[in-house]
Protein backbone atom coordinates (compact mmCIF):
# COMPACT_ATOMS: atom_id res chain seq x y z
CA UNK A 1 0.00 0.00 0.00
CA UNK A 2 1.48 3.34 -1.07
CA UNK A 3 1.06 6.46 1.02
CA UNK A 4 0.90 9.73 -0.80
CA UNK A 5 1.10 13.00 1.00
CA UNK A 6 -1.54 15.55 0.07
CA UNK A 7 -0.60 18.42 -2.25
CA UNK A 8 -1.24 21.07 0.42
CA UNK A 9 1.54 19.51 2.53
CA UNK A 10 4.05 20.17 -0.26
CA UNK A 11 2.80 23.72 -0.75
CA UNK A 12 3.06 24.47 2.97
CA UNK A 13 6.55 22.94 3.08
CA UNK A 14 7.64 25.03 0.11
CA UNK A 15 6.32 28.21 1.76
CA UNK A 16 8.17 27.43 5.01
CA UNK A 17 11.42 26.78 3.10
CA UNK A 18 11.08 30.07 1.19
CA UNK A 19 10.40 32.06 4.36
CA UNK A 20 13.34 30.45 6.18
CA UNK A 21 15.71 31.11 3.28
CA UNK A 22 14.61 34.76 3.15
CA UNK A 23 15.15 35.13 6.89
CA UNK A 24 18.61 33.59 6.79
CA UNK A 25 19.78 35.61 3.79
CA UNK A 26 18.34 38.73 5.41
CA UNK A 27 20.49 38.14 8.50
CA UNK A 28 23.82 38.43 6.74
CA UNK A 29 25.79 41.26 8.29
CA UNK A 30 26.28 44.44 6.29
CA UNK A 31 29.80 45.78 6.43
CA UNK A 32 28.92 49.26 7.57
CA UNK A 33 29.62 51.67 10.38
CA UNK A 34 27.21 54.40 11.30
CA UNK A 35 27.09 56.45 14.44
CA UNK A 36 25.28 59.70 15.09
CA UNK A 37 25.57 62.22 17.88
CA UNK A 38 22.46 64.01 19.08
CA UNK A 39 22.89 67.78 19.24
CA UNK A 40 21.71 69.09 22.64
CA UNK A 41 18.54 71.19 22.33
CA UNK A 42 19.08 71.21 18.52
CA UNK A 43 21.65 74.01 18.87
CA UNK A 44 25.04 72.95 17.53
CA UNK A 45 27.73 74.96 19.28
CA UNK A 46 31.05 75.21 17.48
CA UNK A 47 32.71 73.91 20.65
CA UNK A 48 30.87 70.57 20.22
CA UNK A 49 33.04 68.47 17.90
CA UNK A 50 31.65 64.93 17.71
CA UNK A 51 34.25 62.23 17.03
CA UNK A 52 33.60 58.83 15.50
CA UNK A 53 36.01 55.90 15.79
CA UNK A 54 35.77 52.78 13.65
CA UNK A 55 38.07 49.89 12.87
CA UNK A 56 39.16 48.90 9.36
CA UNK A 57 40.62 45.46 8.76
CA UNK A 58 40.11 45.12 4.99
CA UNK A 59 42.44 47.54 3.18
CA UNK A 60 41.80 46.03 -0.27
CA UNK A 61 38.14 47.09 -0.45
CA UNK A 62 36.86 50.51 -1.41
CA UNK A 63 34.55 52.40 0.94
CA UNK A 64 32.01 55.19 0.70
CA UNK A 65 32.21 57.71 3.54
CA UNK A 66 29.26 59.95 4.35
CA UNK A 67 28.26 62.70 6.73
CA UNK A 68 24.75 62.03 8.02
CA UNK A 69 22.89 65.16 9.13
CA UNK A 70 19.40 65.53 10.57
CA UNK A 71 17.77 68.96 10.77
CA UNK A 72 14.34 70.48 11.20
CA UNK A 73 12.36 72.25 8.52
CA UNK A 74 13.04 75.51 10.38
CA UNK A 75 16.77 75.39 9.51
CA UNK A 76 17.25 78.67 7.69
CA UNK A 77 20.14 77.90 5.34
CA UNK A 78 20.31 75.68 2.27
CA UNK A 79 23.80 74.47 3.20
CA UNK A 80 26.18 73.85 6.07
CA UNK A 81 29.95 74.27 6.27
CA UNK A 82 31.92 71.69 8.24
CA UNK A 83 35.52 71.05 9.13
CA UNK A 84 36.05 67.32 8.75
CA UNK A 85 39.16 65.96 10.44
CA UNK A 86 40.46 62.46 9.78
CA UNK A 87 43.03 60.71 11.95
CA UNK A 88 44.47 57.60 10.28
CA UNK A 89 46.32 54.99 12.37
CA UNK A 90 49.92 56.09 12.90
CA UNK A 91 49.45 59.16 10.70
CA UNK A 92 49.00 62.88 11.10
CA UNK A 93 45.65 64.63 11.34
CA UNK A 94 44.11 65.59 8.00
CA UNK A 95 41.51 68.32 7.76
CA UNK A 96 39.22 69.56 5.01
CA UNK A 97 36.52 72.22 4.87
CA UNK A 98 33.37 70.80 3.33
CA UNK A 99 30.16 72.44 2.17
CA UNK A 100 27.09 70.23 2.29
CA UNK A 101 24.20 71.44 0.16
CA UNK A 102 20.99 70.57 2.00
CA UNK A 103 18.45 71.95 -0.45
CA UNK A 104 17.44 74.83 -2.69
CA UNK A 105 14.53 77.17 -3.15
CA UNK A 106 13.29 75.50 -6.35
CA UNK A 107 13.00 71.90 -5.16
CA UNK A 108 13.19 72.13 -1.35
CA UNK A 109 15.19 69.96 1.02
CA UNK A 110 17.35 67.09 -0.14
CA UNK A 111 17.30 63.72 1.61
CA UNK A 112 14.37 62.04 3.28
CA UNK A 113 11.81 63.84 5.36
CA UNK A 114 8.99 63.04 7.70
CA UNK A 115 6.83 65.91 8.90
CA UNK A 116 9.34 68.67 9.71
CA UNK A 117 12.44 66.47 10.18
CA UNK A 118 14.92 65.95 7.33
CA UNK A 119 17.88 63.60 7.08
CA UNK A 120 20.53 63.88 4.42
CA UNK A 121 23.53 61.65 3.70
CA UNK A 122 26.35 63.39 1.84
CA UNK A 123 29.65 61.88 0.65
CA UNK A 124 32.87 63.23 2.12
CA UNK A 125 35.00 62.07 -0.82
CA UNK A 126 34.42 62.50 -4.54
CA UNK A 127 34.31 58.73 -5.02
CA UNK A 128 35.09 55.45 -3.28
CA UNK A 129 38.11 55.59 -0.99
CA UNK A 130 40.59 53.01 0.25
CA UNK A 131 41.93 52.97 3.76
CA UNK A 132 45.71 52.54 3.46
CA UNK A 133 46.32 50.49 6.62
CA UNK A 134 44.33 48.46 9.10
CA UNK A 135 43.46 49.99 12.43
CA UNK A 136 41.24 52.53 14.13
CA UNK A 137 40.25 55.62 12.19
CA UNK A 138 38.77 58.72 13.80
CA UNK A 139 36.63 61.33 12.06
CA UNK A 140 35.72 64.56 13.85
CA UNK A 141 33.04 67.00 12.67
CA UNK A 142 32.93 70.70 13.51
CA UNK A 143 30.35 73.17 12.27
CA UNK A 144 31.93 76.40 11.02
CA UNK A 145 28.87 78.46 10.18
CA UNK A 146 28.60 82.07 11.35
CA UNK A 147 25.78 81.25 13.78
CA UNK A 148 26.98 79.97 17.12
CA UNK A 149 25.16 77.96 18.21
CA UNK A 150 23.68 76.82 14.91
CA UNK A 151 19.96 76.21 15.53
CA UNK A 152 17.73 73.40 14.23
CA UNK A 153 20.46 70.76 13.77
CA UNK A 154 19.22 67.59 15.47
CA UNK A 155 22.10 65.16 14.94
CA UNK A 156 25.26 64.60 12.95
CA UNK A 157 27.22 61.47 12.24
CA UNK A 158 29.49 59.41 10.02
CA UNK A 159 28.57 56.42 7.86
CA UNK A 160 31.16 54.12 6.26
CA UNK A 161 30.08 51.34 3.95
CA UNK A 162 31.84 48.98 1.60
CA UNK A 163 31.51 50.24 -1.98
CA UNK A 164 29.69 47.83 -4.28
Give, in spatial order, the strands making up the sheet with the most strands. 1-13-4-10-9
Terminal Cα span: 56 Å
Which bin fits the share of residues in helices? 10-25%
Which whole number gives the mean pLDDT? Answer: 87
From the spread of the alpha carbons, the general shape counts as: globular
Measured on Cα atoms, how large is the radius of gyration?
22 Å
| Secondary structure: number of strands | 13
Order of helices and strands: HEEEEEEEEEEEEE
Number of helical regions: 1
* Multimerization state: single chain
Structural class: mainly beta
What amount of the residues lies in strands? over 45%
Sheet having the most strands: 5 strands, antiparallel
Please mark out the parts with pLDDT under 50 across 5 or more consecutive residues, or reply none: 16-29
Describe the structure.
- The chain is mainly beta and 164 residues long.
- The chain contains one helix and 13 strands.
- The protein has one helix spanning 7-26; strands at 32-38, 43-44, 51-56, 63-72, 79-87, 93-101, 103-104, 108-109, 112-114, 117-123, 135-143, 150-151, 153-162.
- Strands 1-13-4-10-9 form a five-stranded antiparallel beta sheet, with no helix packed on it. The chain has a four-stranded antiparallel beta sheet with strand order 3-11-5-6, with no helix packed on it. A two-stranded antiparallel sheet has the order 2-12.
- A hairpin with a 3-residue loop joins strand 7 (103-104) and strand 8 (108-109).
- The chain is globular.
- Mean pLDDT is 87; it is low at 16-29.
Amino acid sequence: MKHFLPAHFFIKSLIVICICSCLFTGCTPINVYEKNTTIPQYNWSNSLKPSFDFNITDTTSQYSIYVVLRHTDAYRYNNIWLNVQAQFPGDTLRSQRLELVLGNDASGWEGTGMNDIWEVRKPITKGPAKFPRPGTYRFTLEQVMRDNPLPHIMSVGIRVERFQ
